[in-house]
Amino acid sequence: MFKEAVIDGLWKQNPGTIQLLGLCPTLAITTSVVNGLSLGIATMFVMMIANSSISPIRRFVPDEVRVPIFILVIAALVTVVDLSIHAFAEPLYKALGIFIPLIVTNCIVLARVESFASKNPTLPSFYDGLFMGLGLCFVLIILGGMREFLGQGTLFSGFDLVFGEALSGVSINFFDEYSGFLLAILPPGAFLGLALLIALVNWIDQKE
Amino acid sequence: MNNFIKKNKIVGRTVLVMIIFGVFFSTILQFVYNETNPIILKSEAEAKERLLLQVVSKKIYNNDLINSYIEIPPNQRLKNKAVIKGYVAKKENKVTAVILETRAPNGYSGEIKILVGIDAEGNILGTRVIKHQETPGLGDYIDINKGEWINIFTASSLKNTSQLEWAVKKDQGKFDYMSGATITARAVIVAINEALIYFKENKLEMGIDV
Fold it and tell me: Which of A58, A64, A148, A173 to mutate to test the interface with B (most CBs of B within 10 A)?
């Protein structure tokens, strides 16, 4: 059960490269590692609590109106997360901005609730949310890394702004004079980057 | 008849469940909102003051800057569409600087909002772009996080820079710009120039009688 959730979430059913759900934030926010990581964590958190709070109440939800109720629960949870981040982690809120409320519309959250949590007990649902979220988080980080490296010639820049001054040393600048590869930062770079990533995953899968 | 009751039972149950969920989560949201709102307001005020501190230094004032402002009606100089606040910095009750928010409507992609700190003699103390949507890697050098360019205005004034010099070097002006993104620099320069003119025309209202 645990192992399955890990393998499914991180590789076999990875939301970012296999299920291709929730692409809007995946493509929009991944201009740097720190952005990808931040949104990844926020989404993972929402998926975790959405799955594990809907699973226990699944028997009380009438089939006919399950989707509106799921959306209601997810929207309420996201609003709680949004308010909490705004209050307790303001730099993170600034970095993510509109993309936190938009987690509500991220289809991966509803997809996991609908296809997994509404049919399974609480603990497996929790694992499912956690590892699906983690899988998406990894994709966001890798995509963010690719785009940041190509676009700005840096990696991990801005970590100190989001996660505190202590991390100001982790930023790596690869080139002294780098004018930037604009395409990577702009939206087309997100599509191309994700395409390359999916191609890589498929290539590895086929080799086996 | 039986069918009718059966149908209504389903409807009634669904409505009831939805109401319960709605009420339950509204209560939770209300609670979280009440808990977080004061913290959010406080950190927003702090963020605002940090922003103001970027254009005027803490040394030149000792009043409560956030609550010391004049209301600026919409006008053609600052290009504001609603009433905005102009902050007045005072030391020993004497006005030492004002902070104006000015807009450049003609950026390369949309409006650019700029904060300009001006001392009582009309010299620029500092400038910061607070909102823009310029192209990353091209026009975004106006942002302090991307470069030092925005600091070239410090110490300029209408007296030491003639109206013709308020332009990029390419247009025989005084100010540097990054090639490839001249439109952005032009827009910012005009907006800052307009802010100085607004200051000159309205300084009596701000409590400066020179």
Answer: A64
Q: Which residue of B has its CA nearest to A182?
A: B137
pLDDT in tens, chain B (210 residues): 677 777 788 888 888 888 999 999 999 999 999 999 999 888 888 878 888 888 888 888 888 888 888 889 999 999 888 888 889 998 888 889 999 999 999 888 889 999 999 998 899 999 999 888 888 778 888 988 888 899 999 999 999 989 999 999 888 889 988 888 889 999 999 999 999 999 999 888 887 765
A-chain residues near B179 (CB < 8 A): none
Q: Which residues of B touch A80 (CB under 8 A)?
A: 28-29, 32
C-alpha torsion angle, residues B18, B19, B20, B25 (rounded to 10): 90
Q: Token match 């959306």: residue?
A: A71
How many angstroms away from the CA of A12 is the closest CA of chain B?
A: 34
Instruction: Give residue B194's identity as a one-letter amino acid code.
Output: E
A118-166 confidence digits (pLDDT tens) = 999 999 999 999 999 999 999 999 999 999 998 888 888 777 777 777 7
Q: How far is CA A54 from CA A174, B21, B23, B102, B188, in A?
A: 46, 12, 16, 49, 51
Contacts of A182 (CB under 8 A, 6+ apart): A151, B135, B136, B137, B138
Coil, strand or helix at A69: helix
Nearest 5°: phi and psi at B137? 90, -20
How far apart CA A31 and CA A148 sit, in angstroms, is 6
Q: Which amino acid is at A112?
A: R
Which of the 8 DSSP states describes residue A16? I
> For residue B11, how many other CB atoms are within 10 A of its CB?
11
The tokens of B73 are what? 């009606």
Alpha carbon distance B167, B146 (integer Å): 22
Mutation target to probe the B interface, by most B beta carbons within 10 A, among A80, A182, A183 is A80
Chain A residues within 8 A of B25 when measuring between CB atoms: 72-73, 76
Structure tokens given for A11: 């590789």
- Would you tell me the crossing angle of helices A33-54 and A66-88 to the nearest 10 degrees? 130
| Residue A26 per-residue DSSP state | H
